[in-house]
Amino acid sequence: MDKEQHCPDLLSELADFMDGTATIEVCAEIEKHMAECPDCRVMVDTLEKTIYLYRNREERFELPSGFRERLFTSLHLEDYLKD
Amino acid sequence: MKQEETFSIDALRSGDREAFAAMVDEYSPKLYRLALRMLGDPQEAEDVLQDSLLKAYHAIDKFEGRSKVGTWLYRITSNEALMRLRKKQPALVSVDEPIQLDKGDMVPRQLEDWCCLPEDEFMTAEAMVQLDQAMEELSPALKAAFILRDLQGLSTEEAAETLEISESALKTRLSRARLQLRESLSIYFGDRVKEFMHG
After folding, report:
1. CA distance B199 to chain A (A)
2. CB-CB: which of A14, A39, A75 is closest to B111?
3. What value of ipTM does the predicted structure carry?
């Protein structure tokens, strides 16, 4: 596989492919290429894993202790803190 | 992004404090996370959040309703965070990024397959530091695109509107951000794979 030519062209479509907004033709082309190109397969797998790791960490994120109280006080919204 | 607000825009415009409090409750966790990921410092993120919400409160009469309140708040907060970054590192902070992807950006250099590592390996404190460092190395423009689109879940249209760029520019920044993060993490996790395989 010609990495200097074909792979970069393919990779430029990756954002749409990964976000599910690529056309059926583009998806088919990328799937076909990945079946033949182990490097691109690894690249896409690790790219998806990268995004997953960041999203997973974000889902487990907790606000710091006293966040709401500090914010409401700084904005002079103390009267609405009880909610 | 949530479609219906728990407060009235008209009430906000008339200076209703209860509506403002409801807006703060609804959006402050998301805006805080945006500021924290942009700046990497919890105290600074709280300061930016406070300044952004105050700015929004004082400018609410200028909110024209063409965009959603959330998009407007994200825009104010990301601008505040970018201003802070510029003050700290004026030479390093460029808001602009090339519109087109360079071929050099697109050619992956790290091709170790690290997806096979046990899940525990991705959850260690050291791995979390690697995630932070990789994010820290992104330019503010790339970071903002990645956070809004991939972490906050805004649509391409919403993220582009927030950053006041075209959708194609947003997609380019998003791709560059994702690829750069992948390269950074591949160095660390690739080494972990080698350590695993050799003992």
Report:
1. 23
2. A39
3. 0.87
Total of domains in chain B: 2
Would the CB atoms of B28 and A39 count as touching at under 8 Å?
A: no
B121, closest residue in chain A (CA to CA): A53
Contact B85, B38 (CB under 8 A): yes
CATH of the domain at B189: 1.10.10.10
Q: Mark whether B60 and B143 lie in a shared domain.
A: no
**Overall average pLDDT of the A1-30 stretch:** 76
Same domain, B151 and B177: yes
Distance, in angstroms, between B158 CA and closest chain A CA? 15
- Reported as a single tens digit per residue, the pLDDT across B128-168 is 999 999 999 999 999 999 999 999 999 999 999 999 999 99
Res. B97: pLDDT tops 60: no
pLDDT band at B37 (very low <50, low <70, confident <90, very high): very high
Tell me: pLDDT of A2 over 50: no
Distance CA B189, CA A69 (A): 39
Together in a domain, B176 and B150: yes
- Is B68 inside any structural domain? yes
Spatial distance between the Cα atoms of B48 and B4, rounded to a whole number of angstroms: 25
Domain definitions of chain A by residue range? 6-80
